[in-house]
Amino acid sequence: MKYIRSIITMSCLAAIAATAGAQGYRPGTGITDIMRAGPRLGPPAARAPAAPSAAPVQRSAEYIVALVNSEPITNTDVQSRVTRLIKENPDAERVPRGELTRLVLERLITERAQLQLAKENGIKVDEVAIDQAEQTVARQNEISLVELRRRVAAEGIAQQDFRNDLRDQLLLTRLRDREVESKVKVSDAEADEYLRDQRNQSVKNVALENLNLAQVLVAVPENATDAQVAAAQKKAQDIAQRARSGEDFAKLVRENSDSPDRANGGAIGMRSADRYPSLFVEATQSTAVNGIAGPVRSSAGFHVLKVLAKAQIGSGDATVTQTQVRHILLLNDPKRTTAQAVAQLAEFKRRIQAGTADFASLARDNSQDGSAKQGGDLGWSRPGQFVPEFEEAMDRLSPGQISDPVVSRFGVHLIQVVGRRDSKLSQSEQREAARAALREQRVEEAFTTWVQEVRARAYVEYRDPPQS
Length: 468
Hints:
alpha+beta, Chitinase A, domain 3
């Protein structure tokens, strides 16, 4: 199920893959594909020498396998993560169980050390932010919140355990933002040099390619029968053939797509390739503009893709879909809880929609950032300019629409999209796109070093090894 892959398991798999590589685990086991999943962590510190073996002792399945700065990790913690990992990612079964268990333990140790550091630094995630994260996971899977919870329960995961996982991932993200991302800088000269290098390369950097794709999604229900999958696949293949024969793609979208973007003719918008699912990028890499790709299979169903536009950052025709947006921001404040800020912004939205208040006026009087003087106007933005929480909500809005209150690391936002346009990138905007791509590379490098340092500083005491 996609929510585990995107929120929980992938971070574990990325770490396992990196650790396996550092330990000399051979490619070709299936775990090499997992290495693309997320941040790659460096190898853990050398393990303490094992104590002399004693006679085997019958014991309970629940016992402490390691202490991280005196905080225990139990055998159940390890085996639960291993079981979930294998269930969601069959490739993990190709790693010997003992090796996989040891790697998962090392990942839990590293994770626990980071969570402790987040606590020491006063980083917190409240229930409202977890609620929002849960809703985002449901939207990403194109299901309702009720259905998400049903599927979580069906996979044997307690609701509170799932929410605790979300909390931990949010804490780790905020810690990374504070300790790593905020400290990585890229100068204008470095961005310009990066652009020049990109222009001179025969093989272009996908991170600097902009794409505008449209899709028809033929959904496949959870626990679908073979007959249902086959029927959905045939429908998608028929749609792809009709599109290749010249039928209007937007009409095919309106009549057949199960995706929320069908109202826009299935168009997702011009954005950098790394902001699209890798499945879409790989499927369309050799597809010309106006060409059709697919159907390709995801956990949501079968996707038929049309390439609306392609442009390489640094070329003269580079374009992007820009959004004119404004917001009202209420900062995190000890005197006002997140729930109170959400309630206040929800009341602002009700008044605006009822016609008894104006968005710009409310922003001028209440927004706690520099945009207040402009009525909350943030101008025309390009994809990737805002933090993910903000941008995910913004992308779901049509011009004129107002979001529900959105919790980010900065506070709580009420967002309104004023307009959208496809615009050719200026030289300075291309520089910013190059800066973002180069900065992301450096953040990954800095993150690897930082995680190694956090792990090295932690006091780890190994107890009895995990056993299934």
